[in-house]
Amino acid sequence: MGGKIDCYVDIASLYSYLAFLELQKNRDLLASQNVQVEYHPFLLGGINAGSGNRPPWTVRAKAKYLAHDARRSIARHDPLPPPISFPRDLMQRGMTVVPMRCLLYIKRRYPAAVFDAVLHYLFHLFWSPPNMDLTTPESVAKALVTVPRGFRGPGTGIGEGQGGRLFTEAEVREIVEGALSEEIKVGLKSTTQEALDKGAFGAPWLWVVDERTGRGEPFFGSDRFHFVYKFLGLPYTDVTLLPAAGAKAKL
User: Fold this and answer.
1) How far apart are CA 128 and CA 84, in angstroms?
2) Nearest 5°: phi and psi at 22?
3) Which of 151, 172, 206, 219 has the fewest Cβ atoms within 10 Å of its own Cβ atom?
């Protein structure tokens, strides 16, 4: 067994956040079975435009259902994430070009652990009250300068101020300036197109390669990991209906 999970995400996607939490929770276990995980910043707006899709909250029936589905999806995550709320102006807050460029810059110039920590932190700021606006270079700089060193999520006790800040103010200026460069602008477009070429129409988009055969397949959403694990030949427990307590006792 073994393989690679390429996970394409945008911080404006709640389900990208939940998929990220799920993969991070199981990352060491996946690594023990020779499965690598890599996150790729891309633009969900570009995916929607390129695939002809529409944000679910712009479709009245989907928006109504989304309230139920989001609540259920959050509740099934173990351990439970910190309080999550939808920004009131999600369409405007979803203009994430600046933070996604900053993430790509960090990914290209810093260790993977730093990139993962920053991605986690920006997910947290976007989706947790008071839902920080991350649409401008100034707001993203304000966020980056507060990233705790070793951040692994609220409530973990790790990276919540004990070890200082991950970036200096000078490093944050360099990141934000670098994110506005042509290299990063083209790079983010390229990653978005790469996902489109792999069939993406939303986020999170997963491209999974089975090392045994070299074959890759797409997977969509934060609740398809049982399909991913089966594709990779990994041992896992599927959703199983159990008998009622009384019936089990009789058996």
Assistant:
1) 5
2) -65, -45
3) 219
Q: Give the pairing of strands 35-41 and 215-220.
A: unpaired
Checking if the pLDDT of 28 tops 60, the result is yes
Query: What are the chain's domains?
Result: 3-250 (3.40.30.10)
Q: Is residue 223 scored above 90 in pLDDT?
A: yes
* Dist. CA 178–CA 229, nearest whole Å: 37
Q: State yes or no: cis peptide before 204, omega within 30 of 0.
A: yes
Round to whole Å and give the CA distance between 10 and 217: 20
Alpha helices in 33-161 (DSSP H): 44-51, 60-75, 90-93, 97-109, 112-127, 137-144
Show the tokens assigned to 63: 């928006």
Confidence (pTM): 0.93
Determine the straight-line distance between the first and last CA of the chain, rounded to whole angstroms.
37
> What is the predicted pLDDT for the residue at 155?
59
Q: What is the pLDDT of residue 47?
A: 97
pLDDT tops 80 at residue 129? yes
SS3 206: strand
